[in-house]
């Protein structure tokens, strides 16, 4: 397929769309899935892990909605693998909001997480939510202890030989996994980008200590826990469960066991010192491209920077901070709210020193490329949801369109810095919607009688089908605009000299989470 094939969708003279089917095919052709520019998540995880497999975590839907649960489960596993690959334990979550991702990374993966959000209210809410989540972990701890004790009582006197063999095999597998973790520096991402020259990253001392801790704990547990109990341990932080000793049969074994107990006590003492590092710290700060992280985080060290649905320019600034700060070794950013991006060439303003959300890469800057607000608004739509029957909110869109006519014709306003927001869901009728919206826009509604408002409604209601058709065309075009914005961010990373590998990775099910692509990058080993 080439550009000439798609040129016939518009009239040569009027430039109007005349072939909707061809328009849909062109939009599909230029979408992310068809362009083949993204890296499969499975390939990236395999390259990061080597021979290691991911762990089975707790079910986050116990304390999150389905959408957030899906996002946090997938992204936290990836971030943990990136952190292990880089041999680091600190994570900075930009735009952390209520702390869903931050708290899960901290509790499930024993990572030291700083969640930074500009809203003090949100940060305070994250503190409270994190406190409640810790109770969740205590419940799992109590359940694990009860199950361990039950297993011990049931099998202490008459444990089948086969059970001993199976349990030993499980522990050997865990030991092998630990051994593989100790050789992570042999893992490369050359399979994903052979030309990038990314040759691996040495494991840090903190990571090595964690591996020794895991190996010692596994050895002391051998032949004591069944496969079921190991599964329970797997959903807890590394230091969450006390290990119960099995029954003793003679003095020789007792002596050996005492040695193991002393060794375990020593390891637990070290673990308790490290426990404070495995925390989540919500912080309040406004992040820009010029932000000095060391001013916000006093113990800043080598870290991974993440962002789950960072809004507008924050996604672009996350990438700029990543490339500029030597402490940040990797980034995993999923952006959203494209309509709030600032554009350098949108208003033809000459502000060369200004930092803009779009474009980021030099190629589009040289072209003077501009999307415009309407296109960016379209990029926020969810084609996959519409495809499975989750239709657009036609009535609310119609309300907003008629309101626009009213404020232009009655008040002479064509542009405003204020927003109507989610007024539709709080309104009992069109009249109520208009009056609440005018108040938000700080326009006097007293000169506008109810009859006048309804006249506008009646005048345009027969065109609601046209509005729906127009919005469907916008939905079809949405993936094309989104891929332009995402490729701009990827090209920006490709232009940097200190990046070993960068790519676009589809993390989420787009029906559950429409903004499903992450921009991921790792710095060169020489930058460590």
TrEMBL record:
Coiled coil: none annotated. InterPro entries: Methyltranfer_dom, METTL25, SAM-dependent_MTases_sf. It comes from the Eukaryota. It holds the Pfam family Methyltransf_32. Residues 67-344 form the Methyltransferase domain. PANTHER family: CGI-41 METHYLTRANSFERASE, METHYLTRANSFERASE-LIKE PROTEIN 25-RELATED. This is MET25 protein. It comes from Cepphus grylle (Black guillemot). The gene is Mettl25.
């Amino acid at each position: 397929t080439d550009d000439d094939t798609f040129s016939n969708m518009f009239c040569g003279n009027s430039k109007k769309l005349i072939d909707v089917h061809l328009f849909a095919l062109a939009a599909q052709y230029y979408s992310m899935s068809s362009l083949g520019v993204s890296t499969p998540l499975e390939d990236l995880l395999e390259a990061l892990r080597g021979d290691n497999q991911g762990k089975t975590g707790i079910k986050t839907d116990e304390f999150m909605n389905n959408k957030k649960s899906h996002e946090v489960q997938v992204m936290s596993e990836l971030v943990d693998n990136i952190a292990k690959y880089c041999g680091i334990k600190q994570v900075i979550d930009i735009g952390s909001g209520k702390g869903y991702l931050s708290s899960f990374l901290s509790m499930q993966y024993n990572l030291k997480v700083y969640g930074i959000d500009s809203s003090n209210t949100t940060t305070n809410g994250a503190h409270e939510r994190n406190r409640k989540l810790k109770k969740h972990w205590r419940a799992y701890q109590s359940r694990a202890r009860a199950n361990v004790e039950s297993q011990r009582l049931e099998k202490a006197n008459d444990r089948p030989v086969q059970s001993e063999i199976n349990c030993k095999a499980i522990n050997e597998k865990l030991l092998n996994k630990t051994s593989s973790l100790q050789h992570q520096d042999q893992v490369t991402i050359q399979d994903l980008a052979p030309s990038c020259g990314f040759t691996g990253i040495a494991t840090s001392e903190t990571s090595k200590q964690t591996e020794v801790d895991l190996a010692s704990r596994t050895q002391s547990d051998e032949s004591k826990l069944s496969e079921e109990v190991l599964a329970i341990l797997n959903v807890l932080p590394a230091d969450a469960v006390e290990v119960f000793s099995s029954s003793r049969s003679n003095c020789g074994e007792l002596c050996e066991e005492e040695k193991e107990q002393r060794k375990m006590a020593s390891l637990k003492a070290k673990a308790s010192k490290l426990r404070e590092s495995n925390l989540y710290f919500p912080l309040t700060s406004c992040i820009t491209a010029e932000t000095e992280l060391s001013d916000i985080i006093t113990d800043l060290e080598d870290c991974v920077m993440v962002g789950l649905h960072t809004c507008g320019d924050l996604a672009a600034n996350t990438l700029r901070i990543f490339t500029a700060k030597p402490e940040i070794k990797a980034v995993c950013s999923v952006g959203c709210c494209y309509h709030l991006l600032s554009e350098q060439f949108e208003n033809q303003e000459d502000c060369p020193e200004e930092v803009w959300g779009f474009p980021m890469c030099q190629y589009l800057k040289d072209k003077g490329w501009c999307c415009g607000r309407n296109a960016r608004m379209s990029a926020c739509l969810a084609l996959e949801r519409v495809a499975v029957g989750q239709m657009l909110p036609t009535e609310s869109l119609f309300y907003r369109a008629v309101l626009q006519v009213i404020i232009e014709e009655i008040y002479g306003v064509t542009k405003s810095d204020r927003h109507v927001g989610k007024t539709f869901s709080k309104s009992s009728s069109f009249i109520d919607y208009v009056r609440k919206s005018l108040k938000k826009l700080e326009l006097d509604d007293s000169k506008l009688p109810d009859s006048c408002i309804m006249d506008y409604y009646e005048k345009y209601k027969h065109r609601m089908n046209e509005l729906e058709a127009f919005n469907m065309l916008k939905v079809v075009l949405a993936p094309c605009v989104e891929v332009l914005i995402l490729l701009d961010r990827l090209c920006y990373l490709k232009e940097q000299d200190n990046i070993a590998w960068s790519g676009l990775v589809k993390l989420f099910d787009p029906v559950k989470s429409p903004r499903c692509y992450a921009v991921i990058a790792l710095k060169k080993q020489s930058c460590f």
